[in-house]
Specification:
Helix content is 39%, strand content 26%. It is an alpha/beta fold and 250 residues long. It has one domain: Spore Coat Polysaccharide Biosynthesis Protein SpsA, Chain A, CATH 3.90.550. Strands 1, 2, 3, 4, 5, 6, 7, 8, 9 and 10 form a ten-stranded mixed sheet that branches. Helix 1 links the parallel strand 1 and strand 2. Helix 8 runs antiparallel to helix 9. It is globular and about 55 Å long. The model has no long low-confidence stretch (mean pLDDT 95).
């Protein structure tokens, strides 16, 4: 691992409309020691061509192509190529504010964090409307995260020197399962309550199907985390409440 390098993991599928803006938000970072690993997941559109143009102009942007396998395996492919001590996650339609990496890395150093996450705001698909600040708690443990939605994928930064190796699980909520797996080792996730990311709300995004999302959360509790029926019910109630509270107002 390169000690000061941040490896940015970005799965991209049908992302032609937004991926250029996402890349530019990374190029605008005040912290320059990064590589952006964009895994083009068999898109039927021009996603790979757009990424290839940026990669040709900036060696820190790296295009990786694969047959369609879903976001979990796209993220895993990026991890297999990641050279940095730090791993950040950024979805292909989300955006970072310019000081995101610089300020979050400083925060992690102050708290000796293995995993950190930040506050953020949602934006509409066309970027014309910005929502309220979604604040985050100061800390999350494995047990508290089970019943919470506080960690947004595109805000996460992980120090692999502290966590050791990890990999994605091929499941619907692969990101949530990864956070749980790291915290289960005894680590604490630290919340940096500063507005540093923009989450783009798309009607066709995976998480917009609420009924399916709820079924997959339940499956995560029971089949992946191995929770009994009563603990799973308790965790699910907390998860549902926090999700409602988080998204009740744009």
């Amino acid at each position: 691992m390169t000690r000061d390098l941040v490896s940015i993991v970005t799965p991209a599928y049908k992302a032609a409309a937004y991926v250029a803006e996402t890349i530019r938000s990374v190029q605008a970072q005040t912290y320059g020691a990064w590589e952006m690993l964009i895994v083009e997941d068999g898109s039927p559109d021009d996603t790979w061509k757009i990424v290839a143009e940026y990669a040709a102009a900036d060696s820190r942007v790296k295009l990786i192509r694969q047959a369609n396998a879903g976001p979990a395996m796209a993220r895993q492919k990026a991890l297999e190529h990641a050279a940095g001590r730090y791993v950040a996650f950024l979805d292909s339609d989300d955006l970072w504010l310019p000081e995101k990496l610089e300020r979050q890395l400083a925060f992690m150093g102050e708290h000796s964090s293995a995993l950190s996450f930040t506050a953020f705001r949602r934006i509409t698909a066309d970027g014309s409307t910005t929502g309220r600040l979604i604040e985050v708690p100061a800390e999350m443990t494995y047990r508290s995260l089970l019943g919470n939605t506080a960690i947004a994928t595109s805000t996460v930064l992980i120090d692999r020197e502290k966590t050791g190796p990890f990999q994605m699980t091929k499941t619907y909520y692969d990101d949530f399962v990864l956070w749980l797996g790291i915290l289960k080792r005894g680590h604490v996730a630290h919340g940096f309550n500063e507005d540093l990311m923009r989450y783009r709300v798309l009607d066709q995004s995976v998480s917009r199907n609420k009924w399916r999302s709820m079924r997959m959360v339940w499956k995560t509790y029971r089949e992946i985390e191995g929770l009994g029926f009563i603990p799973a019910c308790s965790a699910f109630a907390g998860y549902a409440w926090n999700a409602w509270w988080k998204y009740k107002k744009f």
